[in-house]
Amino acid sequence: MNDPRHNPATPDRGSLIDDLLRRPMSRRNALARAGAAGLSISGISAIAAACGGTNANAGGSSGQTAAKVLTMTSGATPVTLDPGVSLDGQSPLLWRCVYEPLLQFKGSTIDVEPRLAQAYELDNAKNTLVFHLRPGVSFTDGTALDAAAVKLNIERQIAVKQGIAYALSTVKSVEAADDHTVVVNLSGFSDGLLYGFASLYGLYLISAKALTDHKGKDWAQSWLRSNMVGTGPYTLQNYQLNQQASFARNEKYWAGWKGAHFERVLVQYVSDPSSGRLELERGQSQIALYLPDDVVYSMRSEKSVTVTDDPSFNVYYLGLPCRTGPTANKTVRQAISYGFDYDTWTKNVLNGTATQARGPLPKIFPGWDGTLPQYKYDPDRARKMLTAAGFDGGGFSLKFIYETGYYWKRPLGEQFQANMKDLGITVSIQELSPSTWVGTLSNKATANEAYGVVWWPSLATPFDFLWTLFATSAQGSAGYNFTYYSNPQFDTVLDKASAEPDETKRMQLYAQAQRIVVEDAPYIFLSDVNYLLPMSPDLKGFEFNGMYINSVDPYKLSA
After folding, report:
1. Yes or no: is domain 100-215 CATH 3.90.76.10?
2. What is the fold, at CATH topology level, of the domain defined by 1-80+232-310+531-559?
3. How far is CA 55 from the centre of its chain?
4. What is the pTM of this model?
């Protein structure tokens, strides 16, 4: 990678990284040498952490350069390394280095193609889904990817009742017909089933030996929180929570290492946005995720940075507690929806990179209904509705909580606070760590707060948005219904839609479900947002797919 601002008197960064990772040296000496090359403190810490016995040439060859190391910075830290138990936005960046699914989305589309399965057949008449596994694939612990391992992974995913388990609700049983053939027996049709095996949060295959050896009472969740054993192109070398994760190439990766690939991957977590920006601008990292929107906007004029600008499946929402307090009243929630200034949010706060959402789905997603009613900023109407609901002049308080790393949520909370003050509603704002934020909202006893959330789909069907955020069965850790909204009519319509084989009838039912939640207003439907990702202009192989947002497939990238 050529940096026009490179100082010949400064040690070459690529050579230094290799030297630091290859040669045994004390942490003090590593820090001194890294500092001499102008690495950031976070970069120094990550490199130095890898010096304690890690062989930098694992998977490498002599004379490696900086192009062999993919360095990414992120302002949001992962929740867990276990791909089966979380729907958070940060963890998949690490999962995709080590783990692989049976199926995947093709290129930039929502079409499904094989990955670890070399072929599959879905027979809706026989209620079976058959996977034919790719031969010669092994986990990094040396055990084979066989039908028994896939069977155990599917059964584990259903048993933990977290992550993508909701997409597997029609699975009755799993059979290992032979070493390379898996038969999934189904109770009926589900329009999201296949996507559950291809999703960013889909069924990633974990070593059956690791699952069995560490099963315990929690299906190995505790062990997998900080350990990884997959079939993917990289192996976890070093993981320091909230600081860094480093990976080396898997020498026995089934797809091989011909062509241009990064030999190692380094993910650094930065609490200071300026650090993430500077590392990218100086060529010290190739991708920067979870930077504040205003920082990303300003980087679009930098010649040393490319910022993607793609229509995405992202929708921003503001959740309102539906189980307790004044917002348990539907009329109050509707009033709050009329009291939010959408134009200020989309044009000023988000710099015109977003449009007001019309309902719960993004406008470019299958099943979006352009005829849905849409709340508009009308504070006078909002005040009248509050009076009708028994809250003349507002007179109550709400707390808005957001997690560190999601920088757009602080300005959302501030605008919410200002708009609600005009209605006589007091809003306080509190920042939490990602794990505390999730823990607070996924626990029914403590989930009494307003919050911002961005959702992108796991499944390429309206069911994904509608079930995960609104279904009664998705409350708490089962999904992402942290408002604890519940409407039996909605649940019934949604279940009918997902199980309806006729696409026309299915979309009509999904439209009906959308109207119900717009009427009930458990969320303020804020905005459809373009995806802006700052990266090095020298990075090759990146292809945006809205189903795999805020993550990359590092094996496909090169520089």
Report:
1. yes
2. D-Maltodextrin-Binding Protein; domain 2 (3.40.190)
3. 31
4. 0.80
